[in-house]
Amino acid sequence: METDVGRAPDRRRHARHAERGRLMRDEEADTVLCHVCGRAFRSLGSHVRAHGLTAAEYREEFGLLRTRALSARDLSRARSTAQRIVYEASAQVRADLAVGHAMARDGGLSREARRSFVQGGASAEFVREQAERLASGRRSQAAAAAARLEARVRSLGYPDTAAAVRGLYVVAELSMEATARALGIGNDQMRQLLGTCQVRVRAVGENSPAGRRARVALNDLAAAQRVGAQDIVSWMRERRSQGATLAELAACTGRSIPWVMSRTRPPATVGR
């Protein structure tokens, strides 16, 4: 029977029995799965030669890290232990590895790795691991943000986020921005929360009783500060009783004549 050992690898006939960019393991049996034939081995280093591949070609063919050990976990640990024993016992080995250690300390190995990626491209395993780390980081950040929001909601006296959103935005009629500040979140997240809680977003400029009251109070305060009064309504009524015209009061307060008229009407006529 012919053997594939020694032949150039024919990548067109290498069926994949495992995901590209991932070394599949049987954790219970502590074996690794061959991408080509689907069989499990303690070590793939010598086995892949039966498929016409060196270990380096196998890693490249199936998108694994160039440094990926093609062996069972306990075998990798045993080899690592043996290498450490040899390193500690042999001055020659330590001398041989001194250059590499120096490059690791000064960042030389990282620069070499970046150059290698630029020239040869990142392996599928590297891309996958980077994506998984990024996704894991995002999940961690999302969990931390959710915990902060829950703590803020509790501190405001609400049982849950939905109750807080409705209490602040719907009942108290705070603006979306003010509600977001109260909850300690950004405006984008606030808008998402409104959708999640099925709360309609008020249109820009939409009037609400609370909004109207707030604007009236702000306008009164600005006018009072302009003329140096404590209560602008009382001040204008007093001046009006002394003969001041609507135009004169409007000029003093920096407001319009209709505004002066609305704020100086007798209390009994308000709202009629």
Automatic annotation (TrEMBL):
GO terms for biological process: regulation of DNA-templated transcription. It holds the Pfam family ROS_MUCR. One of its GO terms (molecular function) is zinc ion binding. Belongs to the ros/MucR family. This is MucR family transcriptional regulator. It comes from Kitasatospora indigofera.
